[in-house]
Structures
1.
Amino acid sequence: MALGEPYDLTGKRIFVAGHRGLVGSAIVRRLAREDCVILTAGRETLDLTDQAAVRDWFAAERPDAVFLAAAKVGGIGAHGQAPVDFLHDNLLIEANVMEAAHRADVEKLLFLGSSCIYPKHADQPISEDALLTAPLDPIHEGYAIAKIAGLKLAQAYRAQHGRDFISAMPTNLYGPGDNFSLQSSHVLPALIRKAHEAKLAGDETMEIWGTGSALREFLHVDDLADACVFLMRDYSDDGHINVGFGEDISILELVKLVNEVVGFEGAIVHDRSKPDGTPKKLMDSSRLHALGWRPSYGLREGIAQTYAWLEEAIAAGDIRGLE
Ligand SMILES: NC(=O)C1=CN([C@@H]2O[C@H](COP(=O)(O)OP(=O)(O)OC[C@H]3O[C@@H](n4cnc5c(N)ncnc54)[C@H](OP(=O)(O)O)[C@@H]3O)[C@@H](O)[C@H]2O)C=CC1
Ligand SMILES: C[C@H]1O[C@H](OP(=O)(O)OP(=O)(O)OC[C@H]2O[C@@H](n3cnc4c(=O)[nH]c(N)nc43)[C@H](O)[C@@H]2O)[C@@H](O)[C@@H](O)C1=O
């Protein structure tokens, strides 16, 4: 594989690390449309923090390409509960997978970082060049440092060993297969669940965290998965690439949109003991757009699709975080 060349997925053995997660399951859905062999390994068979196990698995399975969507992930309420896990697990996962991929001659690897890598008060919209120009948001600093280390490690494998390892930095994601736990989830699944449960219970109010003034950008996970396949095929360079939606919305406006879609008509109350976090983090995705990719889901359409999926999943008793 020559660096800088397009990568043809046809007939390739492709490992989706983290295949049961929000992103990993979407990448598996998207790859089902390709003529390739999808390899997966659940944590119970392959703990990616175990270097020897990861080396052995790669030596045995010999994937041609890897989507690295496995990580310790959570919303703003989760980071403070497990700062070691967000730093330690993510460092080990990315180091083990990239090292084993190198040893097993993997042709291409895409590492998933996050918009959290950027400074808390970065100029908006946030360009890839904003990396390491100012302090991070202390709330998720460990996770952000692990993600920065991951993109730097991918660049190092490219420089030292000529490995075609690339990095994508997604904005906030949502969609089918998300984590709906009220303690550890991201904001959009939490709001959809709260509105749904308040509607069913006939509640007069629904509680949100913080002031609702923070602004967030949301990309449907099926759009992200499509962007990941696009980048795997058509991007080969050492710079990380922002994968955003292009517009942001205040949490308060988001709540109103969710409640319209779900059909909850009660009032909003605020738990101001919870943080707002980063005030705004709209990414500049113009480099990705210049490569020829754009998202397809609008936010209202994406929330409606996610809620329809949630109702079916609840009926089937198959929801992460609602156990
Ligand atoms: N969700 C979001 O809004 C955003 C996510 N991202 C990034 O996208 C990627 C995927 O995130 P997302 O899909 O939301 O996260 P999820 O928590 O939904 O999925 C993460 C997956 O990684 C697996 N995993 C975690 N630790 C291990 C381990 N030690 N060994 C094996 N597997 C492990 C989990 O397995 P198990 O099911 O067993 O727990 C899970 O399937 C991450 O890199 C994240 O940083 C970036 C920006 C936004
Ligand atoms: C995606 C990216 O960015 C993530 O950071 P974040 O965007 O701050 O996380 P969040 O999705 O939990 O949104 C939090 C915002 O939303 C408000 N908010 C209201 N009500 C609820 C609520 O009920 N739950 C949550 N979680 N937030 C709420 C809350 O007050 C705050 O303003 C990282 O965790 C990290 O995972 C990462 O990679």
Note: The first helix runs from residue 22 to 31.
2.
Amino acid sequence: MALETLNFELFTKGSDEEQKQLGDALTKSFENHGFAKLINHGIPSDIVDELFKMMKKFFSLSREAKEKIVHEPSPNPQRGWSRKGAETTSKLRKDNLNGSTGDELTDEKEHFDCGPHDDFEFPNLWPTEDMPEFQGFMEKYFELCQKVSLQIMQALELGLRLPKGALVSRCIPAASELRVLHYPPVNIETIMDGKIKRTWPHTDFGIITLLFQDSVGGLELEDRTKPGTFAPVLPTKKGQSPELVINISDTCQRLTNDRITAGVHQVSLPFHTRGQTSGELPHRYSSVFFFKASRETNVGPLPQFISEKTPRLYEDMTALQFHKQMTKILY
Ligand SMILES: O=C(O)CCC(=O)C(=O)O
Ligand SMILES: [Fe+2]
């Protein structure tokens, strides 16, 4: 299964015809794989470099410094730092569990989450004393991801032949979340034992997720031609501008009544270590932007996707209700 890399400039700078071409290609990639990859996506390479520098510095702060902004597990949107083991993605899919509750099937990762800067309902937590520059950078980067995500929604509206604004209008005001992740070094044997993974197979909750990974590798998506097997999403080749990986998430699946289904993904052993039975995986860093519908928006199927042949598969509910229902499973 080949995931083609698409040139997003065809949409942002192209003619009407080119925009339609890109909209169609993007929609096809999402329909076939639940994933797409973009170059010329509008997030400059120097910003991505700085993002990785920032997250490395943040995660290397002392435990004490990070604990000042620890996220208290709750069904509410996540804010601040989550220690290793706080979240168990294994619980999101029955296939992972094999009869276990999932409590011991842990994720070997720590992460930091923030929401929109003007979110007074679920305010952000920043390491103001210990790393004052983090907040300003992350807030700017958040805005950039939100802008690119809205452009991707416009392209998807074209590809799905939806009226203009059908998706975009559901995402303003923003309720997205930005997460940076650190996977500490781990032995290959530990992963092969089967109780611990960097991230267990899961789908994300929002509409789409924008992802950048470092050069270590390990991200994999489910190969829909062979369900239950995974194919690597390789890191960008050295010297090339970072590719943006996009996955379709649960809310998009609900809105389109399964016309486009969410991409199952995991973080496993990097492709080049396959066949190795011992050794240590190095630190891995990644950044994910969970692009979400605004909280009061109905995330039931859009009328365009309900017909006699394709009856409604999901109940109406608000994006926030759906979010809380999903985060409850994680803790
Ligand atoms: O680190 C990655 O590449 C993926 C992380 C992920 O899937 C998530 O946090 O939802
Ligand atoms: Fe994910």
Note: The radius of gyration is 19 Å.
